[in-house]
Amino acid sequence: MQELIASGQVASDLWIVERLVMSDHAPDEPARDLKFYCFYGQIPLMLETTRHPIVQRCWYDAGGERVQTGKYTDQLFSGHGIPETYVEAALRISTEVPSPFVRVDFLASPDGPVFNKITPKPGGSHLLNRRWDVRLGNRFLAAERRLLEDLLQGRRFEAFLRHAS
């Protein structure tokens, strides 16, 4: 690595260290990805992804029922389900971000939710079928209205502002 840095092929000696998180369902496999499509305190759509031995996905609606969205149709499986503690954590996070929409991602570990990231604009939304496209679009508009009402009433997003800089 020192040679790559010296030659300029690597710009700086900067490292990112990641922790391996194992699955809550299969201790010898990587953790499942759980993605929550959050509309300022509401979660109409959730996605579970396993990556070993092959990539498989399962979509869920707000009630935890499996749904077809038109996306990943060739990778669908019956899923393991999403624990309520993950839903509650995603809801809490989504109400602390001053945005009508964010996707909140967790890894499902034996010890509970491991926060992965917040994504304001996940890719591939154009692949959703018309039913889900319209449903999520309506959720966005309603969330935008709720957020604007909160802002006009003076709500401050202290947790967000502490971490935004």
From TrEMBL:
Domain of life (superkingdom): Bacteria
Name used for this protein in its record: ATP-grasp domain-containing protein
Alphabetized Pfam families for the sequence: ATPgrasp_TupA
